[in-house]
Design a protein that fits this description.
Layout: H1 5-46, H2 52-56, H3 65-71, E1 75-83, E2 101-102, E3 114-123, E4 129-132, H4 134-137, E5 142-146, E6 152-154, E7 156-161, E8 166-170, E9 181-182, E10 193-198, E11 206-217, E12 227-230, E13 242-244, E14 249-258, E15 265-269, H5 270-282, E16 288-290, E17 293-297, H6 300-305, E18 314-319, H7 324-328, E19 335-339, E20 342-343, H8 347-356, E21 362-369, E22 372-379, E23 381-383, E24 394-396, E25 401-405, H9 408-414, E26 422-427, H10 432-435, E27 443-447, E28 450-451, H11 455-465, E29 471-477, E30 480-486
Parallel strand pairs: 9-14
Antiparallel strand pairs: 1-3, 1-5, 2-14, 3-4, 4-8, 5-6, 7-8, 10-11, 10-13, 11-12, 12-15, 13-14, 14-15, 16-23, 17-18, 18-19, 19-20, 19-21, 21-22, 24-25, 25-26, 26-27, 27-28, 27-29, 29-30
Length: 489
């Protein structure tokens, strides 16, 4: 039997027509779904949220108006008044940034004049606790806090920590205040969108946006540097304000900028705040863990010498006699690889982890010694704290010196084997100390050839010497040593 070619051709045409109709239908369905999805995304962005596509594509900008509305009531402006002391703001000599790196209270006012300052803070509890930077409120005689509704209140300092530049202040008698939610800065990624809210140059409730430019930045501002770098515009007056993620959570505290750079700002990670703030609220100061070692970086050359595969870890350059590490059997020349289950990539990381470890906790420390890994149980000691009643440097009016205790990092910097002596934090212009050439950052280790233990010991020895024509001081300045004679005035 012969097949009909005409019937076959007609069947093929019908199949083609059905396929075309199906293709058109699918295209219409896809366009409808895409339009609806676009509407949902636009609505989410208008409310200050973020979309699944935006999460997958970080380069997609968002509408930040809803986000700004969400956090505005939790951000406060801070205005301080203090009597100027002619203090130099280069508090960390030798920093790679030196004069180029400036905190947000810049200047060198005339002695005795009232100085006003501006800063920012954000509410962290419904009972009126506010977090800000230590340098915003340090030595302030009066602190005024202005809320988003324009009302002003007096605030008092609850606690502060110069090493991390964090402070907690409190206002009383305010109802229905709105604390901001705290996020997780460990989840932050380079390239994530962030928003800074603050009081730059006195311009209330200013909102700027940018991205996270880097993490774990060391800028020479203190022993526990671990900053988030952002290009969200921050300026003088933003200090202490929140850095916000797209969920409306605080992930950092805006703290510093480089005056010679554009779009380079730094924020303290919020996870650091979570460790510090509860102690400041409860005690007014921070208790830190102590291991009792001096450490140095593993360079490529040292890595070879110590038999390391890479540059990770921290070399033990010295061990404090009788300290926690000494008692556990850790020795000079060991390389610390892990502390309390956390891998150590660099010395600064070890310092931060040990400092945040509860005093008295038994922690396992893994070290490399002679090519073999050994474990040591260390009972974490307590780093000598500078308590709230020590917040102002002790000042000797007779000689024009303001001094403070010697911290372990200062002792290491000038080559001292222990934290003995006192550090000069201020020299009054025209004083006997100034005429003798004593400078900020000097460490006084002897008075009239007698060793100085601490601040109290210095005060006793210098008081005895004030009855004579002059007092002989022995000073460590960096790696150099010198004598200076000061006379009573």
């Amino acid at each position: 039997m012969e097949k009909s070619t005409t019937g076959t051709s007609a069947a093929r045409e019908r199949v083609k027509s059905v396929a075309v109709y199906l293709l058109i239908a699918l295209m219409l369905i896809g366009m409808t779904y895409g339009f609806a999805s676009a509407l949902r995304d636009a609505d989410a962005l208008a409310r200050g949220g973020h979309t699944a596509e935006a999460e997958a594509t970080p380069m997609v900008p968002a509408n930040f108006s809803g986000l700004a509305d969400k956090v505005r009531d939790g951000v406060v402006n801070i205005r301080t008044t203090k009597t100027a002391k002619g203090v130099s703001f280069n508090n960390h000599p030798g920093s790679p940034f030196d004069e180029r790196f400036k905190r947000f209270f810049e200047g060198n006012p005339f002695e005795g004049y009232a100085q006003s300052g501006l800063g920012t803070g954000f509410i962290i509890s419904a009972d009126g606790h506010i977090l800000t930077n230590n340098h915003v409120i340090e030595n302030a005689d009066k602190i005024k806090v202005k809320l988003s509704d324009g009302k002003e209140y007096d605030a008092k300092v609850i606690g502060r920590d110069a090493n991390t530049d964090l402070a907690v202040i409190k206002v009383e008698g305010i109802a229905n205040i709105k604390p901001l939610s705290l996020g997780n800065s460990d989840d932050l990624k380079v390239g994530n969108w962030v928003v800074a809210v603050g009081n730059p140059f006195g311009l209330d409730q200013t909102v700027t946006a940018g991205i996270v430019s880097g993490k774990g930045r060391f800028i020479g501002s203190g022993p526990y540097d671990n900053f988030i770098q952002t290009d969200a515009s921050i300026n003088p007056g933003n200090s202490g304000g929140p850095l916000i993620n797209l969920n409306g959570e605080v992930i950092g505290v805006n703290t510093a900028m480089i005056s010679s750079g554009k779009g380079i700002g730094f924020a303290i990670p919020i996870n650091t705040v979570k460790e510090i703030a509860p102690q400041l609220e409860k005690k007014g100061y921070v208790t830190r863990g102590l291991l009792g070692i001096k450490i140095q970086e593993v360079t490529p050359q040292l890595a070879k010498s110590f038999g390391l595969k890479d540059n990770k870890g921290a070399i033990v350059a010295d061990v404090v006699d009788g300290g926690p590490a000494d008692k556990s059997g850790i020795r000079r020349g060991d390389v610390v690889l892990e502390f309390d289950g956390k891998e150590i990539k660099e010395p600064r990381e070890l310092s931060r982890i040990v400092a945040s470890t509860p005093v008295g906790k038994s922690a396992e420390v893994k070290v490399l010694r002679d090519g073999k890994t050994t474990s040591h149980k260390v009972k974490v000691g307590e780093l000598e704290a500078r308590h709230e009643d020590d917040k102002a440097p002790a000042t000797n009016k007779t000689y024009g010196l303001a001094i403070s205790p010697v911290t372990p990092d200062v002792a290491e910097a000038v080559g001292l084997k222990s934290n003995t002596g006192v550090m000069v934090v201020r020299v009054e212009p025209g004083s006997s100390a100034a005429e003798a050439g004593i400078a900020q950052g000097d460490v006084i280790t002897e008075v009239d050839r007698q060793a100085v233990r601490d601040v109290n010991d210095f005060a006793e020895k210098i008081k005895k010497g004030s009855n004579s024509d002059s007092v002989l001081l022995f000073i460590k300045r960096g790696k150099n040593s010198l004598y200076a004679a000061v006379s009573p005035k």
